[in-house]
Specification:
By secondary structure, the chain is of the alpha/beta class. It has 3 domains: 206 residues, FAD/NAD(P)-binding domain (3-Layer(bba) Sandwich), CATH 3.50.50.60; 120 residues, FAD/NAD(P)-binding domain (3-Layer(bba) Sandwich); 126 residues, Enolase-like, domain 1 (2-Layer Sandwich), CATH 3.30.390. The protein contains 15 helices and 22 strands. The strands form 5 sheets. Strands 1, 2, 3, 4, 5, 6 and 17 form a 7-stranded mixed β-sheet that branches. A 5-stranded parallel β-sheet has the order 8-15-9-10-11. Helix 1 runs parallel beside helix 9, helix 3 crosses helix 5 and helix 3 crosses helix 7. It is globular and about 75 Å long. The protein starts with 7 loop residues before the first strand and ends with a helix. The mean pLDDT is 93.
C-alpha cells in the first residue's frame, strides 16, 4: 500500500458469492456482524449459474420425459410428444435468474454490502479490490475465502465447448446430441449420461479406471449397471483413452483395453468429467504464510480456519468433496466461529447424491468398508419392485440397503437407488449422526403408501422380518451377511 493511502475498514470481508460465501455472509449478518461480500461475476457462483442448478433442471426434465410412457397407462393421452432443448434452456435461464435474484434480495435484507470486483490480499489484514478502473484498499478484522475451483481437463483433451464439452458447456447446448460420448465415472457423468439418454440421445459411457461399481456400494453398483443396460447406455469399462479426433460433425475416441486391443467409438459430441484446481492464482495468498495441501488447496481445520486464524476458507477452494452442501456448512461454521460461537464441520456422514435416472443416495459405510472394520455385520436389502407406491408411480427400479453391526445393532450405512432416494437419505443421515440402532429405524410409523416404507423393510430385512420380501430372499441375504 502506498504511504498515506487511506484503507476502508471492515469487520468481515468475504471473497466469493457462491453457496459457501453467501451462506457465510447471511449467517454472519444474522449474528450481528457487519459484512462486505465481494463477487467478480454473479451471486450464487458456479453452483447456481453453471453447475448444480442447471444440471438439476436437466435432470428434472429428464425424469418427466421418462415418465411419459407411464402417463399413457394412467389414461392421460398425449396426442404428440417431442423434446425441445431450446425451451428447456429458456426454463433453465428463468430458474437460475429467479434464484439469483432471491440471493441478492436476501443479502440486501440482511444489510450485506455487495461489491462487484476482483479481490487480492495485500497483507494478512488488507485486501485490494479492483472494480473496473477503480482500485480500493480495505482493512479487515476477519476474512473468508470462498473463491471455489476451476475445471482442469485431462491432458489428452482440449475442451472446445462445441463438440467437446465440460459440465459448464454441456448444459448450454442448443441442439441435442445424436450420440453423446460421456467420459468419467463420477456423479456428474452419470447425471449427464442418464439425462441425455432420456431426451433421446444415444449415449456411450467410458469408464477409464474400471470401477465396475462407480464408487458406490457393490449392491448399488450392480443395480446401476442393470439399469444402464435397460436404458441402452453402452458402457466401456477398463478402457483407456488413446486418442480423440474432432471434426465438423463428429468426435472419434480411440480406446485401448487392458489387453491392448484398440476400439474406436464415434459420436456427435463428447462430454468430459474434469478434475478441479483451487481458484487462488489471483488471490495473492503467496504474500501470506498460508498453509496449502499437497494438491494446492487451502488447508483448513474443523472450524474452516486457515493457518492464519483470522482468515477462513470454505467450499471447493479447500479441496475434498466438491459439494455445495459442504461449502454451505463450512460457510455457516466460519460465520459462527467469527461471532464467537462454538461450531465445527464434521464430514463423516456427508452424503453422496446423484440426480441420475433413477436417483442415487448414500451415507455411511459400504458393505465392503463395513466388513473391513467389523467382525460381524448384517445386510438388509429391499427392492423397490416390492414397494406399493413405487408400483403406483411406475418407478419400480432400484433398491434400499441397510448395513448394521450385528452385536450392537448400530446402523453403519444406508444406500439407495430409486424413486425418492434423495429425499429419503436425510433419514439415514440423521440416523447415523444420532447413532441409531435397528430398533430406532423400525419403531416409528412410516407413511403408507410411500417409498419411505422401503427403508423400514430394508431395516426389517436385517433380521428376516420384512413383510413384502419372500422368506427365501431374506434367508439368502442373512446367510450372505454371516458367511462373508
Amino acid at each position: 500500500m502506498v504511504v498515506g493511502e487511506l484503507a476502508h475498514e471492515r469487520d468481515v470481508i468475504i471473497i466469493g458469492g457462491g453457496p459457501g460465501g453467501y451462506n457465510a455472509a447471511i449467517r454472519a449478518a444474522q449474528l450481528g456482524l457487519s459484512i462486505t461480500l465481494i463477487e467478480k461475476e454473479e451471486l450464487g457462483g458456479v453452483c447456481l449459474n453453471k453447475g448444480c442448478i442447471p444440471s438439476k433442471v436437466f435432470a428434472h426434465a429428464a425424469q418427466k420425459m421418462a415418465d411419459i410412457h407411464h402417463i399413457d397407462e394412467l389414461g392421460i393421452e398425449l396426442t404428440a410428444s417431442s423434446f425441445q432443448l431450446g425451451k428447456l434452456q429458456n426454463y433453465k435461464a428463468k430458474v437460475t435468474a429467479q434464484l439469483r435474484q432471491g440471493v441478492e434480495a436476501l443479502c440486501k435484507a440482511n444489510k450485506i454490502e455487495l461489491i462487484k470486483g476482483r479481490a487480492s490480499f495485500l497483507a494478512e489484514d488488507r485486501i485490494g479490490i479492483e472494480a473496473g478502473e477503480a482500485f480500493d484498499v480495505y482493512q479487515f478484522r476477519y476474512a473468508v475465502i470462498a473463491t471455489g475451483a476451476t475445471l482442469i481437463p485431462p491432458t489428452w483433451i482440449e475442451i472446445d465447448h462445441g463438440r467437446i464439452l465440460n459440465v459448464y458447456s454441456i448444459y448450454g447446448l442448443e441442439t441435442l446430441p445424436s450420440h453423446l460420448l460421456v467420459y468419467g465415472n463420477d456423479y456428474i457423468a452419470l447425471e449427464v449420461a442418464t439425462s441425455f439418454r432420456a431426451f433421446g440421445s444415444d449415449v456411450s459411457l467410458i469408464l477409464e479406471d474400471g470401477n465396475e461399481h462407480f464408487g458406490f456400494d457393490s449392491s448399488i453398483g450392480r443395480e446401476l449397471q442393470r439399469i444402464l443396460k435397460k436404458m441402452k447406455i453402452k458402457v466401456y469399462q477398463k478402457h483407456r483413452v488413446k486418442n480423440v479426433a474432432s471434426s465438423l460433425d463428429t468426435v472419434a475416441v480411440t480406446l485401448k483395453t487392458l489387453e491392448g486391443e484398440a476400439v474406436t467409438v464415434e459420436g456427435s459430441h463428447l462430454f468430459v468429467s474434469c478434475n478441479m484446481k483451487a481458484n487462488i492464482d489471483e488471490l495473492g495468498i503467496d504474500r501470506l504464510s498460508m498453509k496449502r495441501t499437497e494438491q494446492g488447496f487451502i488447508d483448513v481445520n474443523h472450524k474452516a480456519q486457515t493457518s492464519i486464524p483470522h482468515i477462513f476458507a470454505v467450499g471447493d477452494v479447500t479441496g475434498g468433496p466438491m459439494l455445495a452442501v459442504k461449502a454451505i456448512k463450512q460457510g455457516k461454521v466460519a460465520a459462527e466461529t467469527i461471532a464467537g460461537e462454538e461450531s465445527e464441520v464434521d464430514v463423516t456422514f456427508l452424503p453422496t447424491i446423484v440426480h441420475s435416472l433413477p436417483p442415487i443416495a448414500s451415507v455411511g459405510l459400504t458393505e465392503e468398508e463395513a466388513r473391513e472394520q467389523y467382525n460381524d455385520i448384517r445386510i438388509g436389502h429391499f427392492p423397490l419392485a416390492g414397494n406399493g407406491y413405487a408400483g403406483i408411480i411406475g418407478q419400480k427400479d432400484g433398491l434400499i440397503k441397510v448395513i448394521s453391526e450385528a452385536k450392537s445393532e448400530v446402523i453403519l450405512g444406508v444406500h439407495m437407488i430409486g424413486a425418492g432416494a434423495i429425499e429419503l437419505i436425510s433419514s439415514g443421515i440423521i440416523g447415523l449422526e444420532t447413532v441409531v440402532r435397528e430398533e430406532d429405524f423400525k419403531f416409528p410409523f412410516y407413511p403408507h403408501p410411500s417409498c419411505n416404507e422401503g427403508l423400514l423393510e430394508a431395516t426389517e430385512a436385517l433380521q428376516a422380518e420384512a413383510i413384502h420380501l419372500s422368506p427365501t430372499k431374506q434367508r439368502k441375504s442373512e446367510k450372505e451377511a454371516v458367511s462373508r
